[in-house]
Design brief:
Chain A: This is PRELI domain-containing protein 1. Chain A: It comes from Triplophysa rosa (Cave loach). Chain A: It holds the Pfam family PRELI. The complex is a heterodimer. By secondary structure, chain A is an alpha+beta fold. In chain A, strands 2-3-4-5-6-7-1-8 form an eight-stranded antiparallel β-sheet. In chain A, helix 1 crosses helix 3. The radius of gyration of chain A is 18 Å and the shape is elongated. Chain A starts with a strand and ends with a strand. By secondary structure, chain B is an all-alpha fold. In chain B, helix 1 crosses helix 2. The chains are: A alpha+beta, B mainly alpha. The interface between A and B is medium-sized, with 36 and 34 residues.
Chain lengths: 200, 73
């Protein structure tokens, strides 16, 4: 039981640059809900992969109706784990993010895959999937709907945050090299297909 | 900021080192040693202590654990 969400986006920036910016996303003007960010594990494997685990703390913003029903959850933040694998040889970056507390109220797992197309090295394709579920008897459907709405809002902020980091990186590198570089764009209107699917 | 209030400076030192190594070495396939090991050790000593003190439940969580239940896309 739960909700499933998938979307695809093209980012008009090379895969390497997207990855470099990914680690430098926080803080940004769109991430005020992200309170802390820590790397808690990192390893370079023998086959050129970089494994990382990050712990994030985010504010727990609930809609008014949920605040009345779940007052105990109001004050405590959400702890989120983000595991990631960079496969350098295949130019593929996979992240898996999920909350480790408040999970009975709602569990959100998100998988993002950033990959590079050999034929279009100046672009990066991003496929995001999310699974949302709630264990609260009788309220799982409104909780899941809220979860989906918040996920979409957070995904937009995440993209804006990534674009912000990309712009900042480009400005820093062009001030060193004196190039004028193109502003990175996410062409989500051109090629996003959003197919929210529900399964019971 | 770091979840450990006193760890933020150590975190920033490590992050700076990592970001430089990542862009200049790792992404170019250069495996000639990791210059950030010492920074990482100091940072981890601090942050792991803070995680325990705050009872953050991340001990023993399998890497990419939830993906085992998902079908590959």
């Amino acid at each position: 039981m739960g909700k499933y969400f998938i979307s695809e986006t093209d980012i008009k920036t090379s895969w390497e640059f997207v990855l470099t910016a990914f680690w430098q996303r926080y803080p940004n003007p769109y991430s005020t809900h992200v309170l802390t960010e820590d790397v808690v594990f990192r390893e370079v494997t023998s086959d050129n992969c970089l494994l990382s685990r990050r712990l994030l703390t985010k504010t727990n913003r609930l809609p008014r109706w949920a605040e009345c029903i779940f007052p105990a959850n109001l004050s405590s933040s959400v702890y989120i784990i983000e595991d990631s694998v960079i496969d350098l040889d295949n130019r593929r970056f996979t992240t898996l993010t999920w909350n480790v507390n408040h999970a009975k109220l709602m569990r959100v797992e998100e998988r993002c895959v950033f990959f590079s197309d050999q034929n279009r090295p100046a672009w990066t394709r991003l496929i995001r999937e999310a699974w949302i579920s709630s264990g609260v008897f009788g309220l799982s459907r409104p909780i899941q709907e809220f979860g989906l709405a918040r996920l979409r809002s957070n995904q937009m902020k995440a993209m804006k945050g990534l674009e912000h980091a990309l712009s900042h990186l480009q400005k820093t590198s062009s001030s060193h090299h004196g190039d004028s570089t193109e502003k990175p764009k996410t062409c989500s209107s051109a090629s996003t297909s959003q197919k929210p699917q529900q399964y019971v | 900021n770091s979840v450990g209030e006193g760890c933020t400076d150590l975190k920033r030192e490590y992050d700076q080192c990592f970001n430089r190594w990542f862009a200049e070495k790792f992404l170019k396939g250069d495996r000639s040693g990791d210059p950030c090991t010492e920074f990482f050790k100091k940072y981890q000593t601090c942050v792991q202590k803070a995680i325990k003190e705050k009872d953050i439940p991340i001990e023993g969580l399998e890497f990419m654990g939830p993906s085992k239940e998902k079908a590959d896309s």
